[in-house]
């Protein structure tokens, strides 16, 4: 029996307030005049991965906890307007929020409101189990409720992916995700020894591939066959913002994996999708579609 969904995305919903600043780090001053302005929009890591996958034609469903509040309304509208299925679980503390400071070169500094989460937050098994049984693959955000969902997803027989974001390689919070997924993405930003961390994930967990992204420096891909470098792709349009580039890379890579491509082609898909995301302002939410992805991949391969 074929699955109803190609990918079930867990967690990572929220709302960001985008503030463009003249430089990062931002020097202290009593006030700044901000242009092009300050804007609040839906879209955090899970939302953007779901958007990226859906835009590439994969049947995608998203489940997460959000609040009964105006921020939650933005998240609901984000999915509704883009035709992405969304199962919401009430979040008593309110929808997750963040403030993103974006510099002129597109770099971002995120300030996450940690007051929204509670120890008791969970994704109910009675909602999650039927979604898992109807899916081929699950992409798991590293939010607190998702850690408790990992055993159920494994029992359902899904392949799993996760993004550890700016893990330092030491914080134990990330380990259930790092060692419990088949495909592991991580930003190289905070890794003092990137290769050592990647090899530890491969040796201690169930991962078949670990990908460390490093922006314009490209990415590193590690399997049992060894470590290879994945060059960055130059975007067709000007770079305006790095927000969402890692999520786009993950979506592009997973698209390749779920359509039967080899790892080299998957990594190229990810690099092209990530480069495209850097051309989209943080105040917007757009993702590369399948036709453009394949066109740019063909051009990149000459």
UniProtKB/TrEMBL annotation:
Instruction: Report the domain of life of the source organism.
Output: Bacteria
Name the coiled-coil region(s). none
Protein name, UniProt field: Adenosine kinase
Q: What organism is recorded for this protein?
A: Streptomyces flavochromogenes
Pfam families given in the database record: PfkB (PF00294)
Q: Does the keyword Iron-sulfur apply?
A: no
Q: Identify the residues that the record assigns to the Carbohydrate kinase PfkB domain, covering every copy.
A: 49-286
InterPro entries from the UniProt entry: Carboh/pur_kinase_PfkB_CS, PfkB_dom, Ribokinase-like
> GO molecular function terms here?
kinase activity
Which keywords does this Swiss-Prot/TrEMBL entry list?
Kinase, Transferase
Query: What SUPFAM superfamilies does its record include?
Result: Ribokinase-like
């Amino acid at each position: 029996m074929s699955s109803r969904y190609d990918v079930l995305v867990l967690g990572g919903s929220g709302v960001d307030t985008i503030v463009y600043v003249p430089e990062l780090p931002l020097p202290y001053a009593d006030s700044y005049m901000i242009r092009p302005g300050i804007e609040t929009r839906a879209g955090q890591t899970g939302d953007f991965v779901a958007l990226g996958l859906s835009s590439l034609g994969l049947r995608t469903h998203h489940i997460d906890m959000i609040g009964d509040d105006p921020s939650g309304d933005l998240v609901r509208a984000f999915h509704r307007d883009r035709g992405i299925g969304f199962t919401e679980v009430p979040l008593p503390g309110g929808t997750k929020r963040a403030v993103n400071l974006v510099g002129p070169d597109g770099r971002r500094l995120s300030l996450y409101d940690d007051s929204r989460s509670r120890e008791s937050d969970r994704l109910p098994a009675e909602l999650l189990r039927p979604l898992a049984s109807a899916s081929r693959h699950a992409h798991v955000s590293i939010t607190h409720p998702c850690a408790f969902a990992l055993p159920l997803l494994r029992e359902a027989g899904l392949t799993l992916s996760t993004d550890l974001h700016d893990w330092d390689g030491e914080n134990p919070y990330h380990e259930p995700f790092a060692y419990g997924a088949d495909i592991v993405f991580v930003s190289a930003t905070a890794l003092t020894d990137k290769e050592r961390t990647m090899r530890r994930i491969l040796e201690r967990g169930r991962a078949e591939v670990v990908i460390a992204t490093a922006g314009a420096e490209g990415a590193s891909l590690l399997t049992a066959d060894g470590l290879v470098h994945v060059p960055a792709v130059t975007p067709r349009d000007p770079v305006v913002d790095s927000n969402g580039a890692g999520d786009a890379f993950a979506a592009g890579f997973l698209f390749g994996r779920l359509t039967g491509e080899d790892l080299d082609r998957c990594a190229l898909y990810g690099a092209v999708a990530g480069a495209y995301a850097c051309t989209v302002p943080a105040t917007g939410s757009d993702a590369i579609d399948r036709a453009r992805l394949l066109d740019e991949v063909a051009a990149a391969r000459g």
